[in-house]
């Protein structure tokens, strides 16, 4: 654990967030921008009418090796070019120009030295940068975020099926309500997550490739006979297929792509975090009520002063991290779609925090996953607490009495049960006094808190 890190993502929680480093670290950001520029060079070489020679298979491989074998040493060179200079290159104080000079410096020693000036040809920084971020987000979603989320949904689904018929007291407004099953309540969360996962998998991110103010000005000036709109469509489609990311061109931008598709995705991630925060809080309450027990682990300490405690701190930590992520996602939604006129730079520094939001989400997932592996459903305690509230079957009794045409059954049950402590015998006594047929009385007496579950068991298995 790096003990001198400012951010807990790279310090205390590094073991949970390290899988995101290949996508959102500074080095990763550089790598994806190099990727974009190298693939752009290859695309230019394959476009008839551009005054650039065709590249051999060996030369294409050489270009792709620049990003496929991109190292921390390469990242340091780019950083040096930007901040203090490197060899004969003076400090640029511009991160992307440093990237361009790095590529030229590498290619200048190869057979590609004659096409150096086609690097970043006719583009603005944000053509490459935005496409790089699109790939970073898309690939991290596929490789890290979704697998972690799907693991949680799978575990919740298993708990739902395993406990499909375990009766449980429901609470609405915090008060005893018509019974449910433990499995069905978990099934709700599994379904909510599955729906959001489906939306994420179908979501398309947008990218740009149209120059300084979005009009292909420089490209059209250099080669007016080339259909640059079609070129950009083909390029983005090709790189999307190559990298297996759902991505399309946005033809209508200023210097920057307006980030609407990013914000749409972030809103999905925010909803997922809210769903999991709700789940965390429910499970926390079940633990507090002893309906869920926590497995102890030898050597672990629950409290610095109370030896008996096993605190549900995994849930609490998960909740805190998911909330932190959501604060960032919400800020992204307010900030990123707004830029002064054709461009201001306030989005650039904000984008660097996307990985932070993903990191806190992932920590939330990991801690929740740890908790799910430790819980044991206390079926006995759940039944005991349910049976302490026989009044919850009053709903069933008054509904059947309505079916039978009896007057004011709701009011009679209200008088019997509201604000009172009952046992099942009190309800049976009430039933015996009703002016109804014996078979209806028998029907009513068959209803208990444990079997008044409706279709909960069936729903938990769907």
The CATH H-level superfamily of the largest domain is: Fumarase/aspartase (Central domain)
Summed over residues and divided by their number, the pLDDT gives a mean of 95
How many separate helices? Answer: 20
Rg computed from alpha carbons, rounded to a whole number of angstroms: 31 Å
**Shape assignment:** elongated
Structural class: mainly alpha
Question: How would you characterize this protein structure?
Answer:
With 462 residues, the chain is mostly helical. It has three domains: 19-121, Fumarase C, Chain B, domain 1; 126-377, Fumarase/aspartase (Central domain) (Fumarase C, Chain A, domain 2); 389-455, Ribonucleotide Reductase Protein R1, domain 1 (Orthogonal Bundle). It is built from 20 helices and six strands. The protein has helices spanning 14-17, 21-24, 26-45, 57-68, 72-83, 95-107, 125-162, 182-202, 217-222, 228-243, 260-288, 313-335, 346-351, 354-372, 379-387, 394-403, 409-417, 424-432, 438-445, 456-461; strands at 167-172, 175-181, 205-207, 247-249, 292-294, 375-377. It has a two-stranded antiparallel sheet with strand order 1-2. It has a two-stranded parallel sheet with strand order 3-4. The chain is elongated and about 100 Å long. The two termini are 44 Å apart. The mean pLDDT is 95. InterPro entries: Fumarase/histidase_N, Fumarate_lyase_CS, Fumarate_lyase_fam, Fumarate_lyase_N, L-Aspartase-like, PurB_bact, PurB_C. This is Adenylosuccinate lyase. Residues 12-320 form the Fumarate lyase N-terminal domain. Keywords: Lyase, Purine biosynthesis.
């Amino acid at each position: 654990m790096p003990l001198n890190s400012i951010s807990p993502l790279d310090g205390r929680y590094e073991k949970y967030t390290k899988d995101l480093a290949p996508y959102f670290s500074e080095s990763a950001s550089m790598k994806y921008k190099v990727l974009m520029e190298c693939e752009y060079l290859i695309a230019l070489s394959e476009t008839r009418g551009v005054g650039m020679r065709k590249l051999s298979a060996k030369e294409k491989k050489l270009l792709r090796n620049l990003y496929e074998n991109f190292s921390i040493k390469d990242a340091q060179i780019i950083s040096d070019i930007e901040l203090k200079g490197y060899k004969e290159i003076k400090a640029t104080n511009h991160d992307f120009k440093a990237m361009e000079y790095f590529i030229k410096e590498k290619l200048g020693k190869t057979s590609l030295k004659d096409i150096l000036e086609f690097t970043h040809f006719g583009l603005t920084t944000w053509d490459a940068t935005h496409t790089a971020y699109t790939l970073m987000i898309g690939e991290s979603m596929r490789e890290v975020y979704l697998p972690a989320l799907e693991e949680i949904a799978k575990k919740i689904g298993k708990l739902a099926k395993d406990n499909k018929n375990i009766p449980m007291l429901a609470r609405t407004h915090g008060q005893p309500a018509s019974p449910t099953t433990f499995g069905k309540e978990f099934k709700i969360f599994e379904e909510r997550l599955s729906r959001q996962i489906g939306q994420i998998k179908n979501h398309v991110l947008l990218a740009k490739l149209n120059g300084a103010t979005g009009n292909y000005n420089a490209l059209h000036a250099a080669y007016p006979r080339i259909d640059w709109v079609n070129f950009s469509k083909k390029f983005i489609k090709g790189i999307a297929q190559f990298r297996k990311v759902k991505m399309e061109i946005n033809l209508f931008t200023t210097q920057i792509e307006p980030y609407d598709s990013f914000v749409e995705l972030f809103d999905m991630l925010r909803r997922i975090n809210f769903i999991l925060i709700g789940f965390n809080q429910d499970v926390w309450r079940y633990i507090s009520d002893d309906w869920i027990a926590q497995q102890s682990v030898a050597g672990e300490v629950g409290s610095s002063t109370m030896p008996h405690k096993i605190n549900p701190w995994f849930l609490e930590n998960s909740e805190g991290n998911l909330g932190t992520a959501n604060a960032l996602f919400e800020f992204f939604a307010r900030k990123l779609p707004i830029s002064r006129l054709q461009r201001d730079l306030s989005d650039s520094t904000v984008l660097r925090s996307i990985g932070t939001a993903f990191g806190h989400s992932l920590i939330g997932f990991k801690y929740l996953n740890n908790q799910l592996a430790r819980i044991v459903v206390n079926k006995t305690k759940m039944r005991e607490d349910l049976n302490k509230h026989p009044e919850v079957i009053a709903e069933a009794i008054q509904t059947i009495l309505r079916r039978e045409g009896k007057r004011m059954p709701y009011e009679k049950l209200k008088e019997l049960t509201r604000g009172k402590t009952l046992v099942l015998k009190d309800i049976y006594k009430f039933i015996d006094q009703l002016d109804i047929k014996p078979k209806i009385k028998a029907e009513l007496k068959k209803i208990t808190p444990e079997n008044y579950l409706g279709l909960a068991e069936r729903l938990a298995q769907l």
